[in-house]
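User: Histidine kinase. Structure?
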Amino acid sequence: MKTVQLKKTKNTDWEYISEKVSLKEPLVLVFGNRYLLEDEKIYDEVKGLFDDGHIVFGSTSGDITSKYVDDESVTITAIEFEKSTYVIKTANVLNDDSNKKSFVTGENLIKQFSSEGLKHVFIVSEGSFINGSQLARGMNAATDNELLITGALCGDAARFEKTIASYNEQPKKGEIVAIGLYGETLDVSFSINGGWTPFGPERIVTKSDANILYELDDLPALDLYKKYLGDKSKELPGAALLYPLKVKSTNDKQSIVRTILNIDEEKNSMILAGDILEGSRVQLMMTNVDSIVNASEKAASDALKLRKTDPELAILVSCIGRKLVLDQRVEEEVEEVLEVVGKDTTICGLYSYGEIAPFRNETNCQLHNQTMTITLISE
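Assistant: Predicted structure:
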């Protein structure tokens, strides 16, 4: 495997942040600031750098390399697979009018791949319109829960205005890109960790609809949430990124962390990043910088233990809520990962609106929030 990385900002042109080497038909991952990806020249610029490349765009709440975490830039990571192959498929959630459009879109997207020799699928999904829980369930349904799928919902800093993604075209709304990796010697491992601690009483979800939470213990959910936040409730919905919910449904063995993306004052409800079922038990969660950094180190260590070979590429997907907590110390969680996987490993990734991966020791993917999700790849 060969890799090359470049970076640009609003005021600078493309600069190599790695050794410049020639690549043949590379997979080109382009992660960055949504405003910069909306530049009408962005696709032609990247195509000019990698004429035979297969180019995948995704907007972020910050792009990640071993050298930088930056939310005012665009980063290219170009990868030449020397022993493996890849296939890219796309879908657009805005094109499906069914009531279960996120599920159907996910299921149909994965069904496009030939299953013979398929080792892993990495997802770069828009994060504005998608129901990430249903997307994951649809993808699992297409594979009978037997295919490793990891990935991200794209971000838009902390603005939550819109996200964009694409494959071999100008980035656009609603797009979901799936990268399928094939190869006998391909070694892919993953792990996730959060570092968030529950606090306060456990409540029962007594009224919800998909990803909208209306009532806890038969009381308006938003009123209860504001009560616990106190003065910080004046900063909603932004403050909600710092106080997500731990959700344990009657159907699931493990708890999921759910970010609150927005609030509806009129309906006294909260809009979450993924589904929340009636009957689920929820608690508020909080964290600190050290807990988040330690969780990233743990995720990297766990992913490394599952490997037969040294990783050549690490794709990191962390959550916008973690970035807000880390603030000026945001690079520390990436430094911890680098310390574990080694400086010969190319690191790329993004801060997202949701992380897609299974729980440890499972194969069916889930939508997570507030986690560090690490995918390690080698040939």
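The mean pLDDT is 93. The first helix runs from residue 34 to 37.
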